[in-house]
Amino acid sequence: MSESYVFTPDGAQLVLGPNDSNLPYLEMLLSADLSVRGTAIMSDDDIPLFVPFMQRLEKAAGERGELREAEIFMEFQLLSEPEAGRSSPDPVITAAGRSIYPRSAAERRLFSALRTDEVIFCSGPAGTGKTFVPVIWALSEVLSGRKGKLLLTRPVVEAGESLGFLPGDLQQKLNPYLRPLYDAMEYVLSPHQIKRLEENGTIEIAPLAYMRGRSINNAVMILDEAQNATRTQMRMFLTRLGEKSQAIVSGDPSQTDLPLRSSSGLEDAIRTLDGIKGISVVRFSHSDTIRSRIVREIVKAYSERRDGDEGR
User: Which of 122, 137, 140, 216 is most buried per CB count within 10 Å?
Assistant: First the structure.
């Protein structure tokens, strides 16, 4: 028994990609040979998920534009999960006219937590959106006027160098460490717009050590690469939270660069604070990786090897 689905002309282009470039990936996910004729996609095999999957992809493409492998995979994954049958619409975050939607079950939980809680911890591997989503959320809050400032900070420990020994002024010294945060902001804003917001104080970027002694009001505070914050630094950051402010902490516990004898403030804070009203912990896993299919497999392989090593 064969299966077929007819897209709208725009839907076919957005789902299948230029020259049907997404077709081999769809075949891999469905374990079937597919063919395209005009705006129709067909399979000679009986695939129960085929029509619901194509419907879901066309709906996603209509909301988000041309689909990439990572987005196709997440739609396929969500279709197989119990909550995929929900009738409620997908949550959305919009900043500067650009909208993002949750691409995994964990991201859906994160979207919800951002709307309800004062402190949110995002813990998990690379490529899961745990930095990207909070940055876009913070921009949406600031650009809409609901918050007055976006404060971005990271521990500066990756290179094992003191900032004082790096060339340039403070901003030039910080740029290599903060590049991932700029990459996220540049999804919705141009570099010129970001610079203007920095100049008027709407966006502030500072190393974690410079946060001591401050009280941050009416702002979204984001601590990225939090696995490299010590327990003392984490407590210091969280206690900067002033009136009408929100703190978002993201990191990957498996990639700490702290000295061997130092314990990560991220894991300690999650153990200490999880369960307190107003605080959410969103845990991502390798199955939530959206950066690309191959990154997901890499993260999964390393995670499985680490689990095996710990068992010996």
Answer: 122
As a whole number of Å, the end-to-end CA separation of the chain is: 49
- For residue 207 the two structure tokens come to 């190393």
* Calpha distance 128→250 (Å, rounded): 11
Length of the chain: 312
Give CA–CA dist 93/144, Å, rounded: 12
66-72 LR contacts (CB < 8 Å, sep 24+): 66/13, 66/14, 66/17, 67/14, 67/15, 67/17, 67/22, 69/22, 69/25, 69/292, 69/293, 70/103, 70/290, 70/291, 70/292, 70/293, 71/103, 71/290, 72/22, 72/25, 72/26, 72/29
Query: For residue range 59-87, what is the model confidence (pLDDT) as tens digits?
Result: 888 887 888 877 787 777 777 654 444 44
Q: Which domains does the chain have, with CATH numbers?
A: 3-85 (3.30.1370), 93-310 (3.40.50.300)
Residue owning tokens 């990936």: 25
Q: 220: which strand partners?
A: 150, 246
DSSP 258: S
Contact 237, 247 (CB under 8 A): yes
Residues ≥6 apart with Cβ < 8 Å to 292: 69, 70, 127
The token pair that represents 157 in the structure block: 């420990």
Q: Bigger pLDDT: 115 or 77?
A: 115
